[in-house]
């Protein structure tokens, strides 16, 4: 610690002074030139004085930590030899004796060098004896600043240009320097300067990476922190890296839209669509799935039965395990959502749904994926943990794509949706993730289910999901009349005995209804629709008149493919029975194709992508090595 002692030389108001007396909080100093005495407060002296210290500065001592152990030992030995001559009062120095001591340890120096060592030791202590050639401290650049400006301009111009070599950049810099009469440094120096000024911008690497890094804000930015479930949920859409069999027999990549909770890492909901995702899909279907428990979703028992028919009972959880999974799956009600500027999120349907559910929206900056990093990073984890095991996997990029991935495609979009939901339940939600840790136990990683349990205790709240009536209210709307035979929607007839008092009657609703009745439908399960009896304040579920003959739910894509096939064969006057037969054929043909195909399991070498991990007990630690099998493992084949 620096102290002001008697006879210490200080600088006070630009005048060199010497401390001559210290009396408590008062210090008396004597001016060096006028010999005038002055009394000042100690606090004033400490704040204004520049103490002339002849001791080692802390910055000089820090230099010793940057040199090799051998160099540090050499400096310490030199200091031991010169220690007796470090005081300025010692004018004499036995130079020959010092040279002999140094020569005995292999350090041969001249008499002049000994005096240099002594001067450096007196000025900077041991740090002054470091060989400057081995000092790895920064050195000022001797390159013309105008050359550095040309280098920065060239690297900035690489942002939107096609990737080139460093040689091209050096030649361009040389041409620009020649125009203003400058000479660039040597070729080796230019390569070094390009590397130094690149600053991780990937100027000569991947063009996509370079453009992505260029979108980072030119300021210090921090990650998003959420402390409770639902505080911040991120949405995004992207084509899935797998080729699926579409209902019309063609092949294509389905588009995945999903939401992830930042605080717990929980995937709140997923949605796969054969074509581009629409605003109504996200604003109605996905939000409704997110806010409704599994057991209360209309059509959930039928989906579970379809999964058993698809994979067989031996590879799926039992009824007790289904119930346990449904209960442990967190129900997260979003407080705010982060979305990009895509049309599906900027549409009026999604915005109106968020306003109705009192969810605030955060719009990401244009072309800034870093504004929602959790959902962006989740796409890669979904691909690595689930998609790459499916038949028809495209590899993630053209460079990694197989020769004929389309030939391996066997799964339909509806079946992929079921597989994805099962994987989220059994693997994603039960697998510890490196980003889910607690401050008190940073070495232990938690699964999304465990993180939700911890945060639910820290921030107590009860998530109230949507009731069945609220779930129906979020579905797409259509206005229809109720005829004696029922309701005609999408060319299908729906009926229910409860509709009998309403047949042929006007609803009395004004505006776009024009006396018609409000009908809600799930575009991914058209086996039933819901008619709102606004007079009684209830919903009436009307089933398709041929639903008893159909064993699986079907989506609008399947319906359109079946109708297109019938119109191409027998014309537009196809009967309902023919339509049912064609829908059944499309669904059954995909199943038969999987049975005949060698890769019908859609997995490679019995890959454990579906598994149920039982939560650890209090005296167990979470196993973060995913290569080891969990205690309870079900392999999807």
TrEMBL record:
**Which ranges carry the Integrase catalytic domain?**
225-390
Positions of the UniProt region annotated as Disordered: 614-637
- Write down the InterPro entries for this protein, in alphabetical order: Homeodomain-like_sf, Integrase_cat-core, RNaseH-like_sf, RNaseH_sf, Transposase-like_Mu_C, Transposase_Mu_C
Q: Name one GO biological process term.
A: DNA integration
Q: What one GO molecular function would you report for this record?
A: nucleic acid binding
Origin superkingdom: Bacteria
| A UniProt-annotated Pfam family | Mu-transpos_C
Q: What is this protein called?
A: Mu transposase C-terminal domain-containing protein
Species of origin reads: Microbacterium sp. A8/3-1
